[in-house]
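pinned: reference chain
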Amino acid sequence: MSTEKIDVLLLGSGGREHALLAKLAESPRAGRLYVAPGNGGMNATAEAVELDVESPVAVAEWAREHGVGLVVIGPEAPLVAGVADAVRSAGIPCFGPNGDAAQMEGSKKFAKQVMSRAGVPTAAYRSFTDEATCAEYVERAGAPIVIKADGLAAGKGVIVAKTTEEALAGVRECFSGAFGEAGATVVVEEMLDGPECSLLALTDGRTVVPLATAQDHKRALDGDRGPNTGGMGVYSPVPEHLVSAEQLAAMVEIERRVVAELASEGITYSGCLYGGFMLTSEGPKVLEFNARFGDPETQVVLPRMKADLIEVFLACDAGTLTEDMVSWDDDWAVSVVLTSAGYPGSYEKGKVITGIERAEELPGVTVYHAGTALRDGELVTAGGRVLDVTAVAPTFEEARERAYAACELIDFEGKTYRSDIGMRAIAR
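pinned: its structure tokens
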């Protein structure tokens, strides 16, 4: 194993990227760390650079000019744009799938077709490029039903419709251009029933190494009420009474089959494959795949991971990943997302944030910045999801208690959060 230090460029600006940065910085091989664009909390660890992260040429040129030895791509848009392809073409190792493989997230229709060929259980679906035909089908099928914009819609573009009227409104919204090009094709799916579970896996295109399980809380309000969000809180691992060993094995097998299917079609999937699953009475079924680490799942999975992240990411790129490169500690992790009032709808920015230092004095607590910025030397809110307050502890109860105690110490105008993150893990 090499001990040579390498400089790393990380693309992204959210809580996921802050957690990735913290883990990369722990590596004995970490040289200079750069982040583009970064956020108000990442500047302490990495040098922020101005760069068009969705431009393959700009990223590859900058990395080459600055002698970067690894590029890590956090969000989905640069992946779908083909940034990883350009970086690798410049002879620089890259963590993240190429443009073809990233279509697993970039096109829901593409992902469904791959799943079908791989024999992977997922919701029955139809895809449409014409509004009238789509509406006609929805009327016939009736509700409950799920309407999805085919392309990237920044976590939006999914309408879980309980009535036919809601479904038809979703169809109109997609075809109206509300989600831009993402809504030019619309996928209509059957509604699946059961608890959800996320499983992230690292892969070099052959070997698939599952990471620890995590359970996100998507709805804005306590009791899983309110609109869907990018995620309000998460915990890891998911206890066995919620996800059995058999269900977990089935999810891992599904991800392996997808990677193998893509390989058989000449597409090497290298990076993180993130499966969103519904644990139905018939076994796990795929809701969707993402081509990168989950957010906020990363914020509880990485703190529990025992691994040299730079070594692991280089192995994913080089095709030398082995299962023994990653192991897990026995601790629990709970992360509560602090949001701006009004999120996921409209919200104000620029509110001064205080108390993070006090929160991080609590044992096992780390505060990852998601939507923050520095303004005249003050830390202010700059997004809907502002902070991920994460606590790690030997028991679930302790981790949860510490996370909420830390939330109390942090303050900004309009601070909002759910009070019931992780309650499913205790409720039997």
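why pinned: The mean pLDDT is 94. The domain at 6-101 is CATH 3.40.50.20 (Rossmann fold).
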